[in-house]
Amino acid sequence: MDLNSILNKVNSKEKFIEFLTELRYDKEQKSDEWENDEITTYLEGICSWVDDMEGYFQNINMDMPNNIDWKFIAMLFYVGKIYE
Known about the structure:
The protein is globular. 67% of the residues lie in helices and 0% in strands. The protein is mainly alpha-helical. The chain is built from five helices and no strands. It starts with a helix and ends with a helix.
């Protein structure tokens, strides 16, 4: 399935897990399509996008989300380092 289609349907914990599972599968099956193949460049890509996300939303004519829980997002990335 198309990752963008799955991303657009994320509205619950279960859909989020489905998205992450498909993202992982995409990395395993289509690694050659990934610009950021290593974890360090992947994280750098995320940092760059977050830094410019206002422009991204402006370019696609969408309102930027309000009330983003930055601490929770940071926690998700942190626990990926330590959780099995």
